[in-house]
Amino acid sequence: MFSLFKKTETFAPLAVDMHCHLLPGVDDGSSNTEETLHCLKAMATVGYKKVFLTPHFQARYPNNEEDIKRRFADLKKAIEGSGEKGLPEVACIAGEYRFDPAFARMPGVDNVLTLPGKRLLCEFSLHNNNYMPIEIFRDYIKMGYKLILAHPERYPYLNVHSTEVKEMRDMGIAFQVNILSLNGFYGDSPKRKGFEYIEKGMSEYLGTDTHNMRYIQALMETAENNEVQKLLKKHKFLNAELA
């Protein structure tokens, strides 16, 4: 299978993927360990050295942190026992927390799963533009969390000129654009907005948001996209600081 994927090392400057759904069987991502191994092996061919798993925490997938940690430990054992060589390091388990009316994790909850440096990856509903949890953001920031908003380009009700975007940036919230947006995976508008956020210096991180092999195929295609290759040479991202 992977002999079909050209080794490009396009994303070697990033080194780290800090947003993917490759913990098997917990959300809409990888369905089993075999699929996770396939995805990880492919990610190595485009330059990733380390991967952080970030399963959903939302109303549709109300995952429990302790259960997620147990599943992560099981996956680590499975990877070690697989005999696969050259995979990216599966560094730790974090989470992608959705803040919307149906599910908003309030400050004070135990065991919030974060990226290194107490960085908390969060998202909004892709459809509900009537709820912006600015006060919740402020509470988390007061508690020492560093918030990262996942894929701002995918929210149809936000753009680089939105008042809410300015307010979040003024609060110090970092943004993470999805790499696949830059290849049109989610449509023309997210692609245009993804490039705009980056060109205006409003995306500190790039993430694959990989779910399964369909995403991996798109990632391989994106790795050969000339626009994306030029962008990675022109702009510096903070992914490697998570190494």
Can you describe what's shown?
- This protein is of the alpha/beta class and 243 residues long.
- The protein has one domain (2-234): Metal-dependent hydrolases (TIM Barrel, Alpha-Beta Barrel), CATH 3.20.20.
- The protein has seven helices and nine strands.
- The chain has helices at 33-45, 65-82, 134-142, 163-170, 188-199, 213-223, 226-234; strands at residues 16-17, 50-53, 56-57, 89-93, 96-98, 119-123, 146-150, 174-178, 205-207.
- The chain has a six-stranded parallel beta sheet.
- Helix 1 packs parallel to helix 6 (213-223).
Q: What descriptors fit this protein?
A:
six-stranded parallel beta sheet, 243 residues, three-stranded parallel beta sheet, TIM Barrel, 7 helices, 14% strand, alpha/beta
Gist?
The protein has 243 residues and is α/β, with parallel strands linked by helices.
